[in-house]
């Protein structure tokens, strides 16, 4: 079952238009280690180096790209010629990039059209003034990357070899590239906020090109399972407009709303149509879920009922394509396997995943924690880069009902002395409050794992190997939350100056069990059989489940990733242990 708007290859499934062109596929490609591309005018059609191609959206480090060189190169160039049809004349042509790591500069037919910094946020350029209709147009992209630890990089290494839990870097285009044809008067964005207690959805519109236009009408149509729910019209007179719509509908009895949850992921179809003089100017299809995530009396609630989270940590790496999913089917397969193992949520670790992953989590009812890629140093530059990109990402993922928690920081990465340094503590507080200013409705975890400052949930990482050892450590809640004992041998729950405020407690990393191998590592002692694996998994998972004050857990991890071999699945998604056994343990 999909939403009415769904199109398999459309890169942005929550904001769908019909007129678009997929630019994934073969592009010309060149390394620029000497940083001579601009001075030699590689952005000109005839001056781009000849001879090498790359398959977008896979980075040059991957086999899927057709290149497969893992050596770091600080500057790369892409080129592709694109035919813009005559039928697009009179419209605006928007060039979209879903993800480019790290700093991109774009030329169209030899003229700069825009720049963007940040490896995880989507961005776009209006290239209309620079194109020729009915003929080929030359699109060139220069991408600058670095091994700097002040750049938000997540699990990408910043030295020449993999180490610990850090893997081959990703440089260049790693998500979809596409064109879209739109009118000047259009809908740029819609922020959708469900209110299940009032049976309403609030719609905050961002409109483009409406100044000086008369006789505009914006119509919103809502359906559920093909049945009409609501139609609302307004006459926009400014770029920012807000309306509310009832989602109550007649369903074989009294009027009610259909809620979204893991067991029942109901999604409403919604369509926005902008008319000028009753002529259609823009049409966008989307969807939303009616769900509420809240915290009351130390409990996490979903739709006003207690929620116990059984999550798995997912880094989203594949053998031949690294951070880029090899296909939509690969994303669906991961979600299905996670559900098959009895998990109801995913902590997407140090990565902002393809929007189609979030779409399928919405459709299938899989909860998601959305986590920012970390920097690994703290200074003014790191603060600026991190903040800018995070403030792009939160609005881009806001409408997904599956996203129930924001995780801007993890394990003091990029804030290494937060335990006692006031400046780093203030930085995390500022990100917490900025996130809440955009989205006051989801919990924010500030520094997942330990040394929390202000945080809606207290999350703890602990790789103790036995259930008995876990129970001994956590039997006295007060000893943990008052920093009298460390939750992870040497890390405490709160940074200096911060105290427990009754937050829910989740063990958001544990396990990490690996089979015996000399080719990688896991947490603790490696096991030598499926029986030993399941015994240890059962022991520690059962211990966590047995503690009343713990509201959920997140097991490390879904798959092996390069040298880290502690997944429940191999990197090519083969189960190491029977999935039904994992399910039995998770479901108690």
Please explain how this structure is put together.
- This protein has eight helices and 33 strands.
- With 588 residues, the chain is α+β, with helices and mostly antiparallel strands.
- It folds into three domains: 20-182, Sandwich (Jelly Rolls), CATH 2.60.120.260; 186-288, Sandwich (Immunoglobulin-like); 304-586, TIM Barrel (Alpha-Beta Barrel).
- α3 (380-397) links the parallel β29 (367-371) and β30 (403-407).
- α7 (530-546) runs parallel beside α8 (579-586).
- The radius of gyration is 24 Å and the shape is globular.
- The relative contact order is 0.10.
- This is Glycoside hydrolase family 2.
- Residues 22-143 form the Glycosyl hydrolases family 2 sugar binding domain.
- Belongs to the glycosyl hydrolase 2 family.
- How many strands in all? 33
CATH class of the largest domain: Alpha Beta
Shape: globular
Please give the alpha-carbon distance between the first and last residues.
Answer: 29 Å
- Strand arrangement, largest sheet? 30-29-28-27-33-32-31
Query: Please, what is the CATH homologous superfamily of the largest domain?
Result: Glycosidases
The helix count comes to 8
Rounded average pLDDT: 96
CATH architecture of the largest domain: Alpha-Beta Barrel
What percentage of residues falls in helices of 4 or more residues?
Answer: 10-25%
Poorly predicted runs: none
From the helix content, strand content and strand pairing, which structural class follows? alpha+beta
Tally of discrete structural domains: 3
CATH fold naming of the largest domain: TIM Barrel
Beta-sheet strand percentage?
25-35%
Largest sheet, in brief, is: 7 strands, parallel
Computed Rg: 24 Å
């Amino acid at each position: 079952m999909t939403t009415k708007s769904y199109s398999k290859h459309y890169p942005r499934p929550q904001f769908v238009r019909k007129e678009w062109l997929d630019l994934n596929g073969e592009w010309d490609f060149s390394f620029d280690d000497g940083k001579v591309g601009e001075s030699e005018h590689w952005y000109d059609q005839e001056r781009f180096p000849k001879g090498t191609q790359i398959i977008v959206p896979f980075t040059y480090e991957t086999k899927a790209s057709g290149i497969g060189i893992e050596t770091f190169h600080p500057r790369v160039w892409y080129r592709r010629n694109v035919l813009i049809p005559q039928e697009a004349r009179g419209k605006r042509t928007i060039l979209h990039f879903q993800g480019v790591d790290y700093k991109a500069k774009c030329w169209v037919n030899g003229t700069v059209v825009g720049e963007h910094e940040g490896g995880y946020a989507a961005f776009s350029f209006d290239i209309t003034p620079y194109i020729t209709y009915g003929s080929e147009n030359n699109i060139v992209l220069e991408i600058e990357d670095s091994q700097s630890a002040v750049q938000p990089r997540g699990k990408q290494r910043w030295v020449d070899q993999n180490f610990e839990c850090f893997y081959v870097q990703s440089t260049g285009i790693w998500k979809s590239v596409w064109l879209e044809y739109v009118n000047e008067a259009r809908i740029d964005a819609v922020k959708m906020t469900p209110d299940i207690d009032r049976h309403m959805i609030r719609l905050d519109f961002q409109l483009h090109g409406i100044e000086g236009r008369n006789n505009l009408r914006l119509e919103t149509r809502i359906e559920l399972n093909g049945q009409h729910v609501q139609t609302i019209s307004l006459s926009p007179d400014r770029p920012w407009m807000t309306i509310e719509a009832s989602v109550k509908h007649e369903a074989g009895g009294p009027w009610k709303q259909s809620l979204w949850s893991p067991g029942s992921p109901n999604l409403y179809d919604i369509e926005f149509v902008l008319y000028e003089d009753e002529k259609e100017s823009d049409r966008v299809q989307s969807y939303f879920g009616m769900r509420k995530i809240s915290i009351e009396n130390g409990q996490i609630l979903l739709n006003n009922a207690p929620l116990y989270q059984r999550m798995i940590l997912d880094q989203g790496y594949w053998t031949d394509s690294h951070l880029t999913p090899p296909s939509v089917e690969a994303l669906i397969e991961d979600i299905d396997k996670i559900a098959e193992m009895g998990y109801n949520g995913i902590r997407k670790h140090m990565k902002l995943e393809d929007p189609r992953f979030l779409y399928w989590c919405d459709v299938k009812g899989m909860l998601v924690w959305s986590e920012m890629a970390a920097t690994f140093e703290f200074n003014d530059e790191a603060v600026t880069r991190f903040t800018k990109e995070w403030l792009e990402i939160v609005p881009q993922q806001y409408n997904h009902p599956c996203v129930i928690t924001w995780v801007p920081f993890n394990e003091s990465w990029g804030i290494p002395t937060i335990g006692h340094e006031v400046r780093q503590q203030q930085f995390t507080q500022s990100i917490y409050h900025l996130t809440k200013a955009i989205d006051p409705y989801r919990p924010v975890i500030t520094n997942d794992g330990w040394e929390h400052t202000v945080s809606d949930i207290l999350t703890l990482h602990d790789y103790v190997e036995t259930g008995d050892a876990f129970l001994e450590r956590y039997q006295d809640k007060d000893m943990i939350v008052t920093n009298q004992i460390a939750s992870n041998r040497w890390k405490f729950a709160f940074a200096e100056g911060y105290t427990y405020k009754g937050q829910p407690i989740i063990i958001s990393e544990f396990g990490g069990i690996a089979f015996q191998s000399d080719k990688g590592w896991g947490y603790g002692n490696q096991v030598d059989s499926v029986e030993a694996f399941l015994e240890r998994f059962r022991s520690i998972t059962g211990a966590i489940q047995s503690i009343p004050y713990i509201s959920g857990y997140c097991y490390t991890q879904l798959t092996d990733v390069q040298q880290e071999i502690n997944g429940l699945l191999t990197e090519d998604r083969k189960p190491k242990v029977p999935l039904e056994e994992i399910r039995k343990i998770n479901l108690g």
